[in-house]
Design goal:
By secondary structure, the chain is α+β, with helices and mostly antiparallel strands. Helices cover 19% and strands 37% of the residues. The chain folds into three domains: 129 residues, Thrombin, subunit H; 92 residues, Thrombin, subunit H (Beta Barrel), CATH 2.40.10.10; 89 residues, Pdz3 Domain. A six-stranded antiparallel barrel has the order 1-2-3-6-5-4. Helix 1 crosses helix 3. The protein is globular.
Length: 347
């Protein structure tokens, strides 16, 4: 998207101030390449221009419509000269139609290339040439706490803002999702879905997933709203696999159809998906999950990892729950998550 020079200059200046405050060694300065302010501004402008809008119409019978709606809007970022676009997967899962929205409000058709359940990434391929240069992938593992970042969204209401990294830690979602090194930034953006976060060299560091009430984490005495980004370090080792197969081996994993919450060392069921293994087994909202296949459950991370690592995607799973103070043992028949997702004709 087109970006006011003042915003790019602000991010560049923030990086200069941050670097000066840290006072890097001559060796570190040499390794960084000594990027000039002008070069940094050009890199940030290129990065901003590579972000576009993503508009999706889900299949009429898609399960995902219940959680993300049938009509979806977000962002994506061009990462290859052939028109490959990286976005967040929940925007494009079970998509019937996809359009990419340029800065001049032109809409170009695209197709879904891949959806990765394990990381949450999605890939799109523009069906006509894109007049946008791709951005390089950065090193999200090298980010420093408090480092200034640029967050960019695309589409008709695309925007750019300054943010900073406030936390890097594992993240477990309520919807059977977990990654080990999520990036948390502040201040928050409501247009986070598929938004891109860049370092001051214009390198892509992550893709926006969520608005969170506490970006600092449970161990912090204060609460700071912010966003969670999926880091590009998770994309690099699987990009070729995604392009070739449309998903990854790690995404072929057990699914129960549970939404759960974690509080004070307890995991409770919030919602049970329709026509899911959990619904068929009689799991109910409010149930406290105490064990899965005999393993104690005190966190969402424990629950999801035991579910995925305990055997084949399709198998018999035992849940020990407590309902209204009474213990119950339920038997569930998990399914491969990828087999539950609908695809448009021809995909």
């Amino acid at each position: 998207m087109a970006l006011a020079s003042a915003w790019v200059w602000t991010v560049a200046q923030a990086q200069e101030a941050s670097s000066a405050a840290i006072a890097p060694s001559p060796e570190a300065a040499e390794e960084s390449g000594g990027m000039s302010e002008q070069a940094r501004i050009q890199a940030l402008r290129r990065a901003s221009d590579a972000v576009l809008g993503v508009e999706v119409l889900g299949l009429a019978d898609a399960r995902s419509n219940a959680s993300v709606g049938r009509e979806r809007q977000g962002s994506g970022v061009v990462i290859d000269s052939d028109g490959l676009v990286l976005t967040i997967g929940y925007l494009i899962v079970e998509a019937e139609q996809v359009q990419l929205v340029l800065d001049d409000q032109r809409r170009l058709p695209a197709r879904v290339v891949a959806y990765d359940v394990a990381t949450g990434f999605g890939l799109l391929q523009a069906l006509t040439p894109l007049p946008l240069a791709p951005v390089p992938l950065g090193d999200s593992a090298a980010l420093r706490h408090g480092e200034p970042l640029m967050v960019v969204s695309g589409g008709d209401n695309g925007a750019v803002s300054l943010a900073q990294l406030v936390s890097r830690r594992p993240f477990a979602g309520y919807w059977e999702y977990q990654i080990d090194q999520a990036l948390f930034t502040a201040p928050p953006r409501t247009d986070h879905s598929g938004a891109a976060v860049f370092n001051a060299e214009g390198e892509l560091l992550g893709v926006g997933s969520l608005l969170v009430a506490d970006a600092l984490g449970n161990d912090s005495p204060t609460h700071l709203p912010g966003n969670m980004f999926v880091p590009v370090e998770l994309l690099k080792p699987i990009l070729a696999e995604l392009r070739h197969n449309g998903t990854t081996v790690a995404s072929r994993r057990a699914w129960l159809g549970l939404n759960c919450m974690e509080r004070d060392g307890q995991v409770r069921v919030l919602r049970v998906n329709d026509d899911s293994p959990a619904e068929e087994a009689g799991v109910q909202p409010g149930d406290r999950i105490e064990r899965i296949d005999g393993a104690q459950v005190q966190s969402l991370e424990q629950l999801w990892k035991q579910l995925w690592n305990g055997g084949q995607p399709e198998r018999v799973i035992t849940l020990d729950i407590r309902r209204e103070g009474e213990p119950h043992r339920l038997t569930l028949h998990s399914v491969d998550r990828m087999t539950t997702l609908s695809k448009a004709e021809g995909i």
